[in-house]
Automatic annotation (TrEMBL), chains A, B:
Segments crossing the lipid bilayer: none
Species this protein is from: Flexistipes sinusarabici (strain ATCC 49648 / DSM 4947 / MAS 10)
Entry protein name: Serine--glyoxylate transaminase
Residues reported in the UniProt entry to bind substrate: R334
Keyword 4Fe-4S: no
Length: 381, 381
């Protein structure tokens, strides 16, 4: 028997009852039956976004929604500010450049969080900046950027919108899009939403919708104005990913039952426990300033082959951690706290990690990580 | 008890064993396990496309692949020829215009098929045309366009590519992309492929890949060159729709077992039987020239409310037919033959149709449709 444990920051495990819901007979998408489900899930997404605005559902991965946020609001020659502090920060730049949008960037070492002051400085020296693009949680570095504080800076500027990639923050952290002043918030299905990948969600503020009116970049499949019109009629511009929307309906029912406060707290506790465990075992965390509650990145010793470790844990022990991406390949191990993941999953993760690194030759004390994790978790079970 | 029968041309029913395959625990997409499945399905898609070229899998609906075929090959100011003979023909025009691509069109009444001669005439009078865009099967009109014959015309022109929307033809008809000379062929998951919507497939000829090199339209999520590079390394540029790819793997296993010849024949027989049934009941078909084997469109009498009929069949009897789209709303009923649909499903469709129209007040002979269908089907069971 080789039980499998999916502990990577997306895709995350899907609850059995959600999988079975998606396994029900297919229904047609142009029916009152589907429209009812669709309108219901769009409504239930709003508290997770902290918005009264329309939340749109797209058939595509999170990158599609990131692209949508640029092509619907910016024109060739416009300038945006990007926080480039990881793989997904870099993606904003790549998308913008594909569409002739100019990029001013704040380059940070992987592991650092941006500060609101750094953003403000750039906005003062480059008043032409039309959009500030940031990850709330940068999955590649397991870092959180202070989006609430940044929003306070950006919302004072009439001609600048604040765009947040919430792919691993919505459903992990309380997010108050309207109150804080986030203008565009995007997320995907395969993280805190406990679904397979294939859906993306996006919401725009009134201010952002005004940018849509003047944006000259071409778009068709990702045309948000057309989608809004269709979705506010309880349908979609193009064929939706029906089974995933039905899964979403079940997921949102589960999330409502658990309660958002409890969900955010669960992520906090699992993250805290994992971080304390790593430190108790003598490791350093990649996140220097504000570690993300979506996943914990652990720096491996210089002579340790992190890639081989992740591979062997997966193939020999059924434990899927994530390694590092791009230049961090082999140098870190990332452990997820996302979605369908409870306190005992964190114990599994920590225990598997400490046994794994011990077997791989590191001199650590077996049980020290688990003990540290238990000290955090015990107050919450 | 209200058993449900999904008889609309997409989404189509998903086989139980495929739904259960997709309900298995989620796996990570950056693993040898997923790569093996992914490379295997890409290989197995080739015979369905009739190609040795790379078939790419996108997370999105068929429209995303249609858009990809334009933005990756055409530049603003280029001119294309579109056969506008239905809702999806019109979509080529809308996409092209969104990207500044000029459109010459052949406008046909809904129900008509284009001829290769009409295409040739346009290409002679407009030698600047860089692409010919057509539906093989136009789902809105249940018409087939003679793509093999059109390919023979287009392939003689070095500076023109032939782009085929095969969304309801791949898996329905034998398609020989390479031999016939189709340069781009696109399809989706929720038709003959018996899957939920959310995946699109696209293949390009060597000639089309050359167009990609010079095309100046912007693209990121739908950048096919980047996708090809990733997919030929058994991965994807962005997160794939994992559960649907796993479903595809099961579907392709089932299709291989049934045999492509048998699949194409099954669609032919179900379509023939439905058409003969409609005629025996005194109805006319919408398709004037070449009816499609994907679905049959039946013209309803002038004073008959087709929309009400489709609604009542669905809500009162559990039978989902499709009505007409756009200006054909209420005027036709469309019955699907696509995908997980066998001879007895056709009997159900015909019987439900004849009982339904009788109850709705039409003077037809009960059983006449089924008898006509049986006369076709009996030689194949």
């Amino acid at each position: 028997m080789l039980k499998k444990y999916l502990l990577s920051p997306g895709p995350t495990p899907v609850p059995e009852e959600v999988m079975l819901e998606m396994a029900k007979p297919m229904i047609h998408h142009r029916t009152p039956q589907f429209s009812k489900i669709f309108s219901n899930v769009r409504e239930k997404l709003k508290p997770l976004f902290g918005t009264k605005e329309d939340v749109l559902i797209l058939a595509g991965s999170g990158t599609a929604a990131m692209e949508a946020s640029i092509v619907n609001t910016m024109s060739p020659g416009d300038k945006i500010l990007v926080v480039n502090a990881g793989k997904f920060g870099k993606r904003w730049i790549d998308i913008a450049q594909s569409y002739g949008v100019l990029v001013e960037s704040i380059e940070l070492a992987w592991g650092r969080s941006v500060t609101a002051a750094q953003i403000e400085e750039k906005l003062i020296s480059h008043p032409e900046i039309k959009g500030v693009f940031v990850q709330a949680s940068e999955t590649s570095t397991t870092v959180y950027h202070p989006v609430k504080e940044i929003a306070e800076i950006v919302k004072l500027r009439e001609n600048t919108i604040f765009v947040v990639d919430g792919i691993t923050s919505v459903g992990v952290y309380e997010t108050k899009m309207d109150e804080w002043g986030i203008d565009i918030l995007v997320t995907g299905s395969q993280k805190a939403f406990m679904l397979p990948p294939g859906l993306a969600f996006i919401a725009l503020s009134e201010k952002a919708w005004k940018f849509v009116e003047t944006s000259k970049n071409p778009r068709f499949y990702l045309d948000l104005k057309k989608e809004r019109k269709a979705q506010n009629n309880d349908t979609t511009a193009y064929t939706p990913a029906v089974s995933l929307v039905i899964g979403l309906s079940k997921v949102l029912e589960l999330m409502e039952k658990e309660g958002l406060k409890s969900i955010y707290n669960r992520h906090q506790v699992c993250a805290d426990a994992t971080r304390e465990a790593a430190k108790a075992l003598g490791f350093r965390l990649l996140a220097q300033d504000i570690p993300s509650n979506a996943a914990t990145g652990i720096i491996m010793p210089e002579d340790f082959d992190g890639q081989k470790f992740v591979k062997s844990m997966r193939d020999d022990s059924g434990i899927t951690f994530a390694g590092g991406q791009d230049h961090m390949k082999g140098k870190i191990v990332r452990i997820s706290h996302l979605g369908y993941h409870d306190f005992m999953d964190t114990i599994i993760a920590v225990s598997a990690f400490e046994m794994g690194v011990k077997k791989a030759g590191l001199d650590i004390e077996l049980g020290a990580g688990v003990a540290a994790a238990e000290k955090i978790i015990i107050d919450h079970i």
